[in-house]
Amino acid sequence: MHKRVLLAVSVIALLAGTVLLSAVPAHTQSLLPWLTQTKPEPKKQRKPRASGGTYRTLCVRACDGYYFPISFKVARAKFKSDANACRQRCAGGQARLFFHRNPGQELSGAVDLSGNRYVDLENAFRYRKELVEGCGCKADVWGETEVSRP
């Protein structure tokens, strides 16, 4: 009889422990903090930087969504000069500068200077499906330096 009582108490204690632990968040299910009455340390989270970091800039043709890199690792302060480089490399066609964080983002996270997402463009990735006649870029052989010469 004594063995049955001991077995019953053990089963009840095991079930009670299981119920108690299942109601506790997973990160606190260690018995050591519970036994010593200490709280586990919260995980540290990095704060996202609002405007710092580096970016990859891309020149995107409006007619078919084709893109090519302007800068691989650039600060926001250089976006204006990269936008000018994009216009010069794709003169005669409508092209816009897009950017995404580098490292940390892919093209799916790229936005233009107005905040419009690349993936929301009407012709995003169209170049992968078809060749759009008359769509292309011609480099501006007369850059700002050449035009300003007397």
What would you say this structure looks like, in words?
It is a single chain. This protein is of the alpha+beta class. The chain has 2 domains: 2-36; 55-140, no CATH class. The chain contains 4 helices and 4 strands, in the order H-H-E-E-H-E-E-H. The chain has helices spanning 2-22, 31-36, 79-89, 144-147, and strands at residues 55-61, 67-74, 95-101, 111-112. The longest helix has 21 residues, at 2-22. The radius of gyration is 30 Å and the shape is elongated. It starts with a helix and ends with a helix.
Topology:
Layout: H1 2-22, H2 31-36, E1 55-61, E2 67-74, H3 79-89, E3 95-101, E4 111-112, H4 144-147
Antiparallel strand pairs: 1-2, 1-3, 3-4
Summarize the structure.
With 150 residues, the protein is an alpha+beta fold.
Helix coverage percent of residues? 25-40%
Spans where pLDDT lies below 50 across 5 or more residues: 44-50
Overall 3D geometry?
Answer: elongated
Given the structure, what is the number of helices?
Answer: 4
For the residues shown, what is the average pLDDT? 77
Sheet/helix structural class: alpha+beta
Q: Per DSSP, what share of the residues sits in E-state strands of 2 or more residues?
A: 15-25%
